[in-house]
Amino acid sequence: xxxxxxxxxxxxxxDGNHPVLLMLSDRGKRSYFATGFSSDAGKFDDSLExxxxxxxxxxxxxxxxxxxxxxxxxxxxxxxxxxxxLAELERRAxxxxxxxxxxxIDWSMDQFRSDFVNAPKRNTFLRFAEDVVEKEYRDxxxxxxxxxxxxxxxxxxxxxxxxxxxxxxxxxxxxxxxxDSFCRxxxxxxxxxxxxxxxxxxxxxxxxxxxxxxxxxxxxxxxxDDGKYKPPQAKLTKTNxxxxxxxxxLLANHKFERPNYERxxxxxxxxxxxxxxxxxxxxxxxxxNFQRITTAEGQEVSVLRYRRSKTQGDFEILVVPSIQRELxxxxxxxxxxxxxxxxxxxxxxxxxxxxxxxxxxxxxxNHTLKAIAKELNLPESQLNMTSYHARHSFAMALLDxxxxxxxxxxxxxxxxxxxxxHYLAKFSTTRMAEETDIDLSE
Length: 442
Known about the structure:
By secondary structure, the chain is of the alpha+beta class. It contains 15 helices and ten strands. The protein has three domains: about 120 residues, no CATH class; about 90 residues; about 190 residues, Orthogonal Bundle (hpI Integrase, Chain A), CATH 1.10.443.10. The strands form four sheets. The chain has a three-stranded antiparallel sheet, with helices on one face. It has a three-stranded antiparallel sheet with strand order 8-9-10. A two-stranded antiparallel sheet has the order 4-5. β9 and β10 form a beta hairpin.
């Protein structure tokens, strides 16, 4: 029966240390595999049953160990971390041998070496997560999801400078509790933390699917009081997420001296007039999204048609005077790129870079909106103005005008596809325009 253990090589390396090797014994033959670790004889005990380990335990001071990674970098480990890494290597070797036994494969040392050395080494959380970004999302064109994972990884790296060495087994409920506290200390809202935690859960689920980890290593609670990590509940606070009509009219009728303030004011108003269209969707509007149609009443009108990126729901909005006025303002006062109708995308952007580009643009937009709110001397509760305020302000303005919940639900696209189809059959495009046309200049 094949046996695996970790030993200290008798000869020394160029630095005078003894390399730590993984030894496989089977049918009188032995094969050795480098672990990347080195040690002196006084810090490693290879006589331990079941495999050697760096000296560790009660009364033993933790010390640093250096390991040369595959990319040539040198990473510092504690003796405990190094022992965990060695145990992970042994586990990977055991899994390969177990698969041979289950499949009744008459394997050789050369075959094992090939499977052990050349198999994808995704045993660390970070390495696996980065692999997920490329293979699960970017290669499939899901750039937005890939960026969400990427930003979560960057957040984890800020929290844990040793993330590159962390195995899945080390991402424990306690680890996630500490990460949660770290995010809060950075000022992250529960909604942001919830998104990041969902990313980590997704990575774990993919790892379980690929049999990289087992279900019992899952650190997230299933809803019961099981002692595992419970993600924060993202609660939307309706207060402070919209501007009342008085503030909206003040914004619309104020002439800003700074060109970027005036431009971003009009971008906010365009979003508001277009039923709260979100930043990503409005940024990508081109002349092709505007069409002339003949209504059921025989009237020729202009409509804006687009598919909402978040829900994939199709929207059709009548171009009422308030919307046309904003389009004319952008045409006359800004430099538009290609056939875009708004000055948000101002140069050629590759599809895989679009989300990052728009995210940076939105950050600058939100920064300007806060400065605008301050210049208008809006109440303190309205100073934290963002692009999302246009959508909520539109909904609240309709409610203030006494519009039905059905009209508001359809205008915002909050219903399921089937529910939306039901309301689209009930209310025509012109009826929707009549019900949702709010002109702040009146």
